[in-house]
Amino acid sequence: MNDSGLLIVVSGPSGAGKGTICAALRKLFPNIQYSISMTTRQPRPGEVDGVNYYFADNARFEQMLSEDAFLEHAKVYDHYYGTPKKYVYQMLEEGQHVMLEIDIQGAMQVKERYPKGVFIYIVPPSRAVLEHRLRSRQTDTEEVIAGRLSKAREELDWIDRYDYVIVNDDLDTAIDDAASIIKAEQCKVMRNVKNIAQTKELYK
Ligand code: 5GP
């Protein structure tokens, strides 16, 4: 197996800024491929099938589940979400990085199956900031916002299962932190076994 591709798993409460940070990372590192998840939730305005998600009905999702076609899957806010396995492994095999923006349940499944992954948790600087961000998006009802805030609190207990935590107070700093993590991971000896072997050859 090619050892140079990173499987980068990013989680954090909605409103923490994961989407923005992940998009910035993909610009900075063109070899990061984005895994498109499958979901049974309805598309939001502007979302495109095959771009934001693969939108599917329950029957299709359950069929994929029975075929063991997901690297991980979870039920989030009453809908299924899952990462199709084939694309992820294909990209890693080619030495590309793959980024998954998934919830904690899914991230823990990936950790079981692929412990070499890089697990990053993004947190907002405070509950008040998170609440403000959720409200200013103007996409969610009060009930949904309350649900997201209480989920964010529960999820904090899982941070210690991740490798890195990024506090997204200032966006540029958070992006910089995330880029530093990726650069350091790329330099790890265990990810460069092939390069090292080739270098040794040159000294023969
Ligand atoms: P949204 O419906 O707002 O796009 O996403 C809701 C939550 O589902 C977010 O926390 C997002 O990270 C998570 N999510 C998106 N895709 C997947 C996936 O493939 N697997 C898992 N476990 N969670 C996902």
TrEMBL record:
Its EC number is 2.7.4.8. Keywords: ATP-binding, Cytoplasm, Kinase, Nucleotide-binding, Transferase. It is found in: Cytoplasm. GO terms for molecular function: GMP kinase activity. ATP binds at residues 12-19. Pfam families: Guanylate_kin. Belongs to the guanylate kinase family. Essential for recycling GMP and indirectly, cGMP. PANTHER family: GUANYLATE KINASE (PTHR23117:SF13), GUANYLATE KINASE-RELATED (PTHR23117). This is Guanylate kinase.
